[in-house]
Design goal:
With about 260 residues, this protein is mainly α. The protein is built from 12 helices and no strands. α1 packs antiparallel against α2 and α9 runs antiparallel to α10.
Length: about 260
């Protein structure tokens, strides 16, 4: 993998990880277009740079995490379904679902869902004054819906935002809960993936990994800030249109 490819993949990871457009899907599509060899280092690189994106959320929401324990219990409840189903389904997902066609179709279907969600959430008032007051039942169901995002191209953010909207949160709360839930979910998924991957890298590969982590952190920080403003002012529909367009374009690319 070249340094240019490293920079491109890292920017894509940071920009897409917390947006409802599927970071995994974009990474698979970008790797396919750039014809990056799918070796051990590339697989580990794509997993490890997620830590840079996670760190951006931890720092942006540090105050929220230090406010008290209630939010940890709610996030733990939401994470539980993903932990159980993810552990059981991991071998099947890795073996059969990581391909470009599934990603493209998932992007299109998810885009349609986001457009419909946007119509539902326009005038929706939250059932809770503050995010920490979300019930354990609602948190659990958001986590259950998050499990759908194990299909590449669905998007963890899109799934959790959808779950939040259908469990009484307004668009800003659903988005912020998605950000917060990303921390335990991604730490667990990334850590599990890294434990199952042999890590023996050259000095050059370590440098590429360090560059990737830094770029993913910076771009994720910027993306989250901008995304919140877009959601408040314009909702989710534009992300839905984007998903449909890129999914169709990539299906055409695969065909020809």
């Amino acid at each position: 993998m070249t340094i240019i490819q490293t920079i491109i993949l890292s920017i894509i990871e940071g920009l897409t990880e917390f947006l409802p457009i599927s970071s995994t899907g974009h990474m698979i599509l970008a790797s396919s277009i750039m014809k990056i060899q799918d070796d051990t280092f590339v697989k580990t690189f794509e997993i490890a740079i997620q830590l840079g994106a996670i760190l951006a959320i931890v720092m942006l929401y540090a105050k929220r995490f230090f406010q008290g324990f209630p939010i940890y219990f709610k996030l733990g409840t939401a994470f539980l379904p993903t932990a159980i189903i993810g552990f059981l389904a991991y071998p099947f997902i890795k073996a059969y679902l990581f391909n470009s066609v599934i990603v493209a179709v998932s992007l299109i279907v998810g885009g349609i869902v986001l457009i419909l969600i946007d119509k539902k959430v326009v005038n929706q008032q939250s059932k809770t004054d503050v995010l920490e007051s979300i019930t354990y039942k609602n948190a659990f169901f958001i986590g259950l819906i998050q499990c759908v995002s194990m299909i590449p191209g669905v998007s963890r953010a899109a799934a959790t935002i959808t779950g939040g909207v259908f469990n009484g949160l307004n668009k800003k709360q659903a988005t912020e809960f998605s950000f917060l839930l990303a921390v335990p979910t991604m730490f667990a998924a990334t850590g599990y993936d890294l434990l199952k991957t042999p890590i023996i890298f050259s000095k050059q590969e370590i440098i590429l990994l360090a560059i990737g982590l830094i770029i993913a952190f910076i771009t994720a920080w910027i993306a989250v800030k901008i995304f919140l403003k877009i959601v408040e002012n314009y909702g989710f529909k534009h992300f839905g249109y984007y998903r449909i367009i890129i999914g169709i374009v990539f299906l055409i690319f695969l065909r020809f």
